[in-house]
Amino acid sequence: MSDPSRESEVEAKARRGRNIALALGLVIFVVLVFIVTIVRLGASVTK
Amino acid sequence: MAMTEAVSTTVKPKAVKAPARWQDFVQLMKPRVMSLVVFTALTGLICAGAPVNPILGAIAILCIAVGAGASAALNMWYDADIDAQMRRTRGRPVPAGRVQGADALALGVVLSMFSVMLMGMALNWLAAGLLAFTIFFYAVVYTIWLKRSTAQNIVIGGLAGALPPVIGWAAASGSVPLNAWLLCAIIFMWTPPHFWALSLYTSEDYKKAGVPMMPIVAGAASTRKQILIYSLLFTPLCLVPAFTGLGGVAYLAVAGLGGLVFLLLAVRLFRSQAGDAAAQRNADSGPGGLYDVRAGAKDARNLFAFSILYLTLLFATLLVEHLMGATPLALFSWKLLS
């Protein structure tokens, strides 16, 4: 008999997908902030 | 109003059944609407004619897209009860029970903050402020207040959809001259004929959900008349950019010819029986989908479909003209405008 408290395969797959999407979103945000900093800093340095 | 309250108290979104997939969260952001917002914002950004770092320009467009997605998620959170009532929207993630309302709310709030913050840091705080105002206007003023309380909901609420080119312009140049507001005015005046044409053949859905759309409150005949009045104001307005240094010959041709077709379709709709009770019964017996041919609703559907094409063509022409460096007509030298 299956344990009702355990995640089903479908639930686990959905959770993994959400986690990967969230991680990607955060990484993209960090990279964007880094790029913005470099671009804006670069513009200030060349002035 | 009473109808709205009845809906709010009796209809609840389905309980969560299937686990939420990441695609459901993407759907919360209404990607199709987002693409139209990106397109108009990009037009504003390019038409500003200010030298902007391409990377920062791309980030500005991304911020506007994410901001639009955030307001869509907030809209889906608040309108889950209405969405569950309508054929067109009952499959959305929250009413279908795939995403919990609280998760949609969290996504909307977090994305709003991230998009506004990044816009302020990357471009300027005028663009960030306009983006924040647009999200607030769509989520709070339109969704929470106007949509359920007045038949003028989409007229006033249309401002939220009209602001992206202004944000794009502000992001590029740090200012919002009258030409930027002209783009805003074009989308603002386009919204009533566009949405009322749609509501003429989906009014049964809105009625069931208790949304006071114009055909339900004022009747189909009055709605058709108002569509014609707005079309008479909208089509000449589309010509104005050709005289203010914003559009060139190609723009004038597209705006003129397209405007004539738009007016023709609006007149045909005015003289039709679209939205009347008998026509509506026929419409309801037809297949689902916004573009399907339904008896009695054909004229409304034609104007709805053409309105999308016309707006797209107007902005695409402006975009191409500015990218190619075409000389604007500038029949009047209004320095204040550019």
What does this structure look like?
Chain A is an all-alpha fold and 47 residues long. Chain A has one helix and no strands. Chain A has one helix at 9-46. Chain A is rod-shaped and about 65 Å long. Chain B has two domains: 21-175, UbiA prenyltransferase (Tetracycline Repressor, domain 2), CATH 1.10.357.140; 177-338. Helix content of chain B is 72%, strand content 0%. Chain B is built from 16 helices and no strands. Chain B has helices at residues 2-10, 22-28, 31-47, 54-78, 80-83, 101-122, 125-149, 153-162, 164-173, 178-200, 203-209, 214-217, 220-239, 249-271, 277-285, 298-324. The model of chain B is unreliable at 1-12 (pLDDT under 50). The chains are: A mainly alpha (47), B mainly alpha (338). The A-B interface holds A 10-11, 14-15, 17-18, 20-21, 29, 32-33, 35-36, 39-40, 43 and B 18-22, 25, 53, 55-56, 59, 62, 114, 118, 121-122.
List keywords for this structure.
heterodimer, A: 47 residues, mainly alpha, 1 helix, rod-shaped, B: 338 residues, Tetracycline Repressor, domain 2, 2 domains, 16 helices, 72% helix, disordered N terminus
